[in-house]
Design brief:
Largest sheet: 8 strands, mixed
Helix content: 10-25%
Strand order of the largest sheet: 2-3-4-1-5-8-7-6
Strand content: 35-45%
Number of helices: 3
Number of strands: 8
Structural class: alpha+beta
Bound molecules: zinc ion
Order of helices and strands: EHEEEHEHEEE
Radius of gyration: 14 Å
């Protein structure tokens, strides 16, 4: 893994959270994007080499809706950039980490992504992501 690509924060309402984090960071988000399959709307703030991703559920079945129901708003996942997501998934699996899916999925921000089960990473939901070419 190369660097923290972004930190995902689960929030209840994108519009008011965009305003709140803009005030906090002293700058606006640079894009909003929906990932229909995941049932989320996202927005991104650029923080140097790292981004902050705000995640709002767009339906009650969304994993973000369930996360907020259980744990409230807050940090949801940490995403690490990798050069080759297929090789990295293979490496992590062979190291005994539990992947949440077998193949990478299309994510927001033109990425291929994969999640590790938090029970194999001390409770941290880890995402790995690779720029799509
Ligand atoms: Zn993410």
């Amino acid at each position: 893994m190369k660097k923290i690509e972004h930190i995902g924060i689960a929030i209840k309402a994108l519009e008011s959270s965009n305003a709140l984090f803009a005030k906090l960071f002293g700058k606006d988000h640079y894009k909003v994007e929906s990932v229909e399959r995941e049932g989320v709307s996202t927005s991104f703030f650029m923080m140097g080499e790292t981004k902050i991703e705000l995640l709002e559920a767009t339906n009650p079945e969304s994993t973000i809706a369930k996360f907020i129901e259980k744990r409230g708003e807050g940090i949801h996942h940490i995403a690490f950039a990798v050069d080759d997501i297929y090789a990295e998934m293979h490496r992590l699996e062979s190291e005994g980490f539990q992947l949440l899916h077998k193949e990478p999925l299309p994510g927001a921000d033109n990425k291929l992504i994969a999640f590790l089960h938090p029970k194999s990473t001390n409770g941290v939901l880890v995402e790995i992501c690779m720029e799509r070419k």
